[in-house]
């Protein structure tokens, strides 16, 4: 991995390939290796940037006073792009990564040449959801990650996709509880991105696993309806992580979308 010192914070990232830049933004509570199949596939044709977000993987949490807002993550990504002298890129975000991608679009639309939102949703948190996220943050700090990882594994990865389960479980267990807790607290206060989606001026792709119970197909359909120019793809026999559960199908959808961005209008 490479490391970039941006202002007072260190960011770990993988930078592979050449050509049009793709920025892969991982979800919670994972790290950049959740994109392993896509890094291998698309670094043959693109420049693929896959960072560990603040508090995840090899990127330290830093001083976030116990809460990392989506705006902090988005500015970290904008800073990384500037450090790498990348003017714009296709941003691919999954779950929390999708919400960070929406925040990056809201703050720096000039940086976003294409937008892929996978297994995510745009609405602000409900009062009940805020309480649940803060309670989970307390639990992770108290108990660590393993119990949580054991409980949610079958929702992250459908039980019939056993080939992906071990990697997903390892990522969750390896995550720093302080980083995960800070992200949960910050995410509880996120804005509503539905209006942001209506202003996206670039073609977008919305992807979702058919059996995702965290962000069901209905959420993907709502985003697809809000975006001015978007394609919706449902990955069969996948839950919350279709990029790992069904990488060939997921990559085929991404490849078709990437190719569409270079076709004459």
TrEMBL record:
The lineage of its organism: Bacteria, Bacillati, Actinomycetota, Actinomycetes, Kitasatosporales. Keywords: Hydrolase. InterPro entries: AB_hydrolase_1 (IPR000073), AB_hydrolase_fold (IPR029058), AB_hydrolase_sf (IPR050266). Residues 22-251 form the AB hydrolase-1 domain. It comes from Streptomyces exfoliatus. GO terms for molecular function: hydrolase activity. This is Alpha/beta hydrolase.
């Amino acid at each position: 991995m490479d490391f970039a010192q941006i202002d007072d914070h260190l960011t770990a990232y993988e930078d592979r390939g050449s050509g049009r830049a793709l920025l892969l933004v991982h979800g919670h509570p994972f790290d950049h290796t959740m994109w392993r199949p896509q890094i291998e596939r698309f670094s043959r044709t693109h420049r693929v940037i896959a960072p560990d977000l603040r508090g995840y993987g090899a990127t330290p949490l830093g001083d976030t006073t116990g809460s990392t807002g989506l705006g902090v993550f988005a500015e970290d990504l904008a800073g990384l792009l500037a450090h790498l002298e990348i003017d714009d890129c296709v941003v691919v975000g999954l779950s929390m990564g999708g919400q960070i991608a929406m925040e990056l679009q809201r703050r720096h639309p000039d940086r976003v040449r294409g937008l892929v939102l996978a297994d995510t949703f745009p609405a602000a948190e409900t009062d009940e959801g805020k309480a649940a996220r803060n309670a989970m943050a307390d639990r992770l700090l108290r108990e660590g990650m393993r119990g949580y990882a054991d409980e949610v594994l079958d929702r992250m990865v459908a039980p019939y996709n056993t080939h992906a389960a071990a990697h997903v479980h390892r990522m969750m267990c390896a995550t720093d509880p302080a980083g995960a807790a800070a992200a949960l607290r910050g995410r509880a206060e996120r804005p509503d991105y539905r209006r942001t989606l209506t202003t996206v001026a670039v073609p977008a792709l919305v992807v979702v696993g058919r059996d995702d119970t965290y962000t069901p197909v209905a959420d993907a359909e709502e985003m697809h309806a809000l975006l001015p120019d978007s394609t919706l793809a449902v990955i069969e026999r996948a839950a919350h992580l279709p990029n790992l559960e069904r990488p060939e199908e997921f990559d085929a959808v991404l490849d078709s979308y990437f190719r569409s961005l270079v076709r004459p209008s």
